[in-house]
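User: Earlier you gave me the apo prediction for this protein. Now I'd like the version with zinc ion bound, so I can compare the two side by side. Same sequence as before, with the ligand SMILES added.
Assistant: Got it. Here's the input I'm using:
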Amino acid sequence: MKLLPSGFALKHKRMSMIKHTKINSIPLYYERNLDESTWGDLSKWKAGRFNFDEELYEALEWVFEQVEKFFMFPLGIITAGVQVDKEGEHKFGRAFDLDGIVFQGGLKLRIRDRTKLHAAVMATFMQRFGVVLGWMYDEDHEDHFHVDLSKGWGFRNSRSIVGAVQWFLELDGYAIKIDGIWGPKTQYAFGKHEGLLKLKVYDTLRYPSHDEYGAFLRRIALKFFDEVKRERMIEDGEIEEFPGNDMRRTLKEIRRLVDEALNEEEG
Ligand SMILES: [Zn+2]
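And here is the structure of the complex with zinc ion:
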């Protein structure tokens, strides 16, 4: 049975859908159920056209602007679908599934790999989308993450959001369990990371404000993008690890040079 008001809403939503082959100027690809060995090769025949709700499309434009600005220019976006005939936000073109991104220089981000680059990209999406479901949410999201606009932006005490925050903290070196539950250890690590939540482990639990959550996501994304870039530059021999990375060693080296100069003067 269909009621008129929801039928009207459906029609209204459909009217705002537009087909796109690119986000910003980055082509979109579809690679599901294809030969694994050619994943991310950006073959022309894998390029696709997708139906987007305008609001979703605008949010994705913002996300990929950030990725380009703070990391690298993507050559291709691999999606598992936008408007799909199934229940939920996908039906209205208001949800997006990301399988991966292929960057300049052949770097491939595959969402099934739990890397810092994956985390940085996820943290960027989380700065704009209220719903981001990744591997920490359930088994269906092991190989892609899902974003949609069904909920407003901000921190929520949900398994998807808390699980993602815990994963970012773990990648950043904190020993915490990724269980999607906001407890004292998560709060402590978050507070220490941010310097915003000035609480100790045994203090009263409270959730981050929207501002604290936003600042955390932004810092994580920038930090991880930067680390991945730096690692790649070291691998390629473009920069040396010493001395830029280690302030203590740098200061020691400066002191040694000063001492040397003073000794020479005396002598
Ligand atoms: Zn989805």
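For your comparison, keep in mind: The first strand starts at residue 17 and ends at 20.
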